[in-house]
């Protein structure tokens, strides 16, 4: 029993949990981005997509609950590993050498905390609609909840768009190092493949970042606009 307890408290298990939950969250981000990109197609396509998700009913909330658990576990293990590293080196180095450490790798914990705060606001804004309850009254010509117009109205606020864009850039930097670390933790770590893994991390981070950012930018520059009959709030 004591061996099991030690294993559950071990750094190895924490790294595996952080890597596996990170993988799930990255896959979710890619899927979420693909769904959101339908904003560029138009109101009908976006609202059909949103209605399909809502049609999942209890399953949708089960998925949301699982993602929340994964996110909490990811944060907890990240903090634990950071504290473990500090405990292993109680005395700071006389001279810090950050030549090999990228900015993304040095700020992983803080970028993760800021992303977590952003996710909380994002849920309050568009999912729960606590910050903008009037969004719940928006419907399209067919009677569907008008998610398309809700998103456009949200991003017409320049401050909100700037916050979202900044958060997605921060997420991109977080993903670059996170994806590399994930492969290393899961045992894929060899000089022959490390260069490819780094490029993969950069590519995924860039795709996710640009994909999400294209929506508020599209609204601000008029590529994505309100349908006829919908009045700006």
CATH class: Mainly Alpha
| Total E-strand runs | 0
Secondary structure category: mainly alpha
H/E element string?
HHHHHHHHH
Radius of gyration: 20 Å
Helical proportion, percent range: over 70%
Proportion of residues in extended strands = under 5%
CATH topology: 3 helical TM bundles of succinate and fumarate reductases
Average pLDDT: 81
| Sheet with the most strands, sense and barrel status | none
Number of domain units? 1
CATH architecture annotation name:
Up-down Bundle
**CA(first)-CA(last) distance:** 60 Å
Number of helices: 9
Which spans of ≥5 residues are poorly predicted at pLDDT below 50?
Answer: 93-101
- What coarse outline follows from CA principal-axis ratios? elongated
Walkthrough of the structure:
This protein is mostly helical. The chain has one domain (2-220): 3 helical TM bundles of succinate and fumarate reductases. The chain is built from 9 helices and no strands. It is elongated and about 60 Å long. The protein starts with a helix and ends in a 13-residue tail after the last helix.
Mind sketching the topology for me?
Blueprint: H1 2-8, H2 11-36, H3 43-54, H4 58-88, H5 103-106, H6 108-127, H7 147-155, H8 158-185, H9 191-220
Supply the key terms.
elongated, 0% strand
Explain briefly what this protein structure is.
By secondary structure, the protein is mainly α. It has helices at residues 2-8, 11-36, 43-54, 58-88, 103-106, 108-127, 147-155, 158-185, 191-220.
């Amino acid at each position: 029993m004591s061996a099991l307890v030690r294993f559950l408290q071990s750094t190895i298990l924490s790294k595996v949990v952080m890597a596996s939950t990170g993988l799930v969250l990255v896959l979710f981000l890619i899927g979420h981005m693909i769904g959101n990109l339908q904003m560029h197609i138009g109101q009908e396509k976006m609202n059909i997509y949103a209605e399909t998700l809502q049609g999942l009913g209890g399953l949708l909330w089960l998925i949301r609950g699982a993602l929340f658990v994964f996110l909490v576990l990811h944060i907890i293990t990240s903090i634990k590993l950071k504290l473990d590293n500090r405990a292993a080196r109680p005395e700071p180095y006389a001279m810090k050498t950050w030549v090999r450490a990228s900015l993304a790798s040095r700020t992983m914990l803080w970028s993760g905390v800021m992303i977590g705060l952003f996710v909380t606001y994002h849920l309050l804004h568009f999912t729960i609609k606590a910050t903008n309850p009037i969004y719940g009254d928006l419907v399209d010509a067919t009677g569907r909840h008008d998610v398309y117009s809700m998103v456009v109205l949200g991003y017409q606020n320049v401050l909100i768009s700037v916050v979202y864009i900044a958060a997605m850039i921060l997420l991109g930097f977080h993903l670059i190092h996170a994806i590399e670390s994930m492969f290393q933790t899961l045992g894929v770590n060899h000089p022959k493949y490390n260069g490819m893994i780094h490029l993969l991390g950069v590519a995924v981070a860039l795709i996710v970042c640009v994909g999400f950012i294209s929506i508020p930018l599209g609204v601000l520059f008029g590529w994505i606009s309100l349908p006829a009959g919908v009045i700006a709030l």
